[in-house]
Amino acid sequence: MVRVTRPNERDSGTAQTPGMKREAGISAALSGAAGLWMGTALNAPAAKSGVHHHGANESGIYVLRGHVRFRWGPQLEHVVDTNPGDFVFVPPYEVHMEENLDEDGEAELLLARNSQEQVVVNVPDPRG
């Protein structure tokens, strides 16, 4: 059965990371999905997310608004800046963080994962 989740029906009870707000739009609870999870993430102006990974999940990220810097690697030594329209793939267990480079506007990301198990493992910043 086709299901539609309206913006006011999104689930903010999903796993969270400091510095960003995630909301589920497609999940087992909202739409009966068995192998796909999708949602959004918002980063406030100039906000940085905490350092985290998503366990065995693959993550696909589409930048809807804002200019977002992604850092990843054991010491967050890899960096790429993204713009609206960019896709980002994050492999399983990849430690990463997102930084909104816009001082005045929110960054909004569309998220997709290949699992209903919404693993978010927040870890200490390895840079100290």
Write a structural description.
This protein is mainly beta. The chain has one domain (19-122): Sandwich (Jelly Rolls), CATH 2.60.120. 3% of the residues lie in helices and 39% in strands. The protein is built from one helix and ten strands; from the N terminus they run E-H-E-E-E-E-E-E-E-E-E. The strands form three sheets. It has a five-stranded antiparallel sheet with strand order 1-2-9-4-7. A three-stranded antiparallel sheet has the order 6-5-8, with no helix packed on it. A hairpin with a 5-residue loop joins strand 5 (68-72) and strand 6 (78-82). It is globular, with a radius of gyration of 14 Å. It starts with 20 loop residues before the first strand and ends in a 6-residue tail after the last strand.
- Please report the total strand number as a whole number: 10
Biggest beta sheet summary: 5 strands, antiparallel
Radius of gyration: 14 Å
Q: How much β-strand is present in the residues?
A: 35-45%
Uncertain segments are none
Overall 3D form:
globular
Please state the average pLDDT score.
Answer: 95
* Fold-level CATH name: Jelly Rolls
Task: Please write the CATH class name.
Answer: Mainly Beta
Domain count: the total is 1
Number of helices: 1
Report how far the terminal alpha carbons are from each other: 49 Å
Approximately how much helix is present in the residues? under 10%
Structural class of the secondary elements? mainly beta
- Going across the biggest sheet, name each strand in turn: 1-2-9-4-7
**What CATH architecture do you see?**
Sandwich
CATH superfamily: Jelly Rolls
What's the order of the H and E elements?
EHEEEEEEEEE
